[in-house]
Structures are given as structure tokens and as C-alpha cells.
């Protein structure tokens, strides 16, 4: 059973950390009913999330802690192997692949799956054509994801250009998880782990 989920994201301000937790909570509510969700801990940077996850492994709280961070690059093998090779993070003793999940290649990659919601969110002036590209969204480099979002929202009359802390967590909350899991195998893996909490 999942206990706490240590999230990358939210920066270093209380407001944005709160928005990060809220965005993930509202998305996860579409998968796991309120009252059954794990406690979400927004940690800011990815290294801070890893460190807090490692510290929680020895806690006596019910449930296993889980780490959720951006992959920052394509993932070709196991998740712990990826984090060891890319970040030099050791796999903590006693953990398995079930203890870690990745947003491949970054949180914004998930947005590419649900262009319908993005168009609704940004309204007049949104350029959906700027997001056309590889349907295998996890193969799209992080820099290309971010550039595509900026191009698509450049002329938005209601929200303006994409801004991570102003828009990112609101968009996250509005995503359709069924659409997302069809486009992102790693998101599907995470959602299946969350679904097991209700069994």
C-alpha cells in the first residue's frame, strides 16, 4: 500500500508548493476516491524529493513511501537504473521498482496527451498546431515539450504564454487520466499503482 508520495515540483515558496500538491491531488482524485489517496508531499527540487523519500523509508507510518520525479531524459530500462545512471542516485536498500515512478520526460510532457483540455484552458488564440508531433510523447525531448507549449500559447488571449508555476498545476488538475495513460506508459504504470489502493 502506498503511504506518502514525495513529489518533485512546487519550487521553494509555500504558495507554489501548495498548488503543486493540489494539482496532483485533483488529478489523482479521478483515479482514487477522496479519503483513499496517499498523502502528497511537494518537495521542490528532484534531489530534495529523493532525499525526503530516503528519509521516509525508516519511518513507521502505514504504507510504503513512493518517489515521483521527472525522468529528464528517455527511459530505456528500469526506473532505478535510470536514476542511478542519470543522477547517481543509489537504490535504497529494501526498495523495489514499485517505490519509484517517473514523469517521462517531465511533468509538461503529460500535457501533450490532452490537447483538448489545453485548448479549453487557454481559449482564444491557442495554437493546437504547434503541439502536433510525435504521438509517443515520452520520446519528445524535454526542451521540445517546453518550446511547443510556449509556441502553442503565445497568442492566448485569456491566459497568456505558458508559465509553469502560474498554469502548470491547474493544467495538471484538469487532465483526463484515461487520455494520458494511453499516451504515456509511465503514467499508466503510476495510475495502476494508485488503483491498487482501492482493491
Structure, explained:
- This protein is an alpha/beta fold and 199 residues long.
- It folds into 2 domains: 136 residues, no CATH class; 59 residues, no CATH class.
- It is 45% helix and 11% strand.
- The protein is built from 9 helices and 4 strands, in the order E-H-E-H-E-H-E-H-H-H-H-H-H.
- Helix 3 links the parallel strand 3 and strand 4.
- The mean pLDDT is 94.
Give a summary of the structure in a few sentences.
With 199 residues, the chain is of the alpha/beta class. Helices cover 45% and strands 11% of the residues.
Map the helices and strands.
Layout lengths: L1 E6 L6 H15 L10 E4 L3 H11 L7 E7 L8 H9 L12 E4 L3 H5 L3 H8 L19 H12 L10 H11 L2 H7 L1 H11 L4
Parallel strand pairs: 1-2, 1-3, 3-4
Helix pairs in contact: 1-7, 8-9
Amino acid at each position: 500500500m502506498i503511504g506518502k508520495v514525495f513529489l518533485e515540483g512546487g519550487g521553494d515558496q509555500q504558495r507554489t508548493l501548495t498548488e503543486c500538491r493540489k494539482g496532483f491531488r485533483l488529478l489523482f482524485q479521478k483515479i482514487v476516491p477522496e479519503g483513499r489517496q496517499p498523502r502528497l508531499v511537494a518537495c521542490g527540487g528532484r534531489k530534495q524529493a529523493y532525499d525526503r523519500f530516503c528519509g521516509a523509508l525508516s519511518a513507521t507510518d502505514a504504507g510504503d513511501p513512493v518517489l515521483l520525479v521527472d525522468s529528464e531524459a528517455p527511459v530505456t530500462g528500469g526506473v532505478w537504473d535510470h536514476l542511478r545512471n542519470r543522477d547517481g542516485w543509489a537504490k535504497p536498500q529494501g526498495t523495489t521498482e514499485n517505490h519509484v515512478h517517473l514523469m517521462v520526460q517531465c511533468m509538461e510532457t503529460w500535457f501533450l496527451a490532452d490537447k483538448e483540455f489545453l485548448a479549453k484552458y487557454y481559449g482564444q488564440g491557442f495554437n493546437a498546431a504547434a503541439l502536433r508531433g510525435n504521438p509517443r510523447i515520452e520520446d519528445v525531448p524535454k526542451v521540445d515539450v517546453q518550446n511547443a507549449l510556449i509556441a502553442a500559447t503565445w497568442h492566448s488571449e485569456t491566459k497568456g504564454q505558458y508559465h509553469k508555476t502560474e498554469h502548470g498545476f491547474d493544467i495538471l488538475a484538469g487532465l483526463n487520466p484515461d487520455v494520458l495513460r494511453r499516451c504515456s506508459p509511465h503514467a499508466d504504470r503510476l495510475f495502476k499503482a494508485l488503483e491498487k489502493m482501492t482493491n
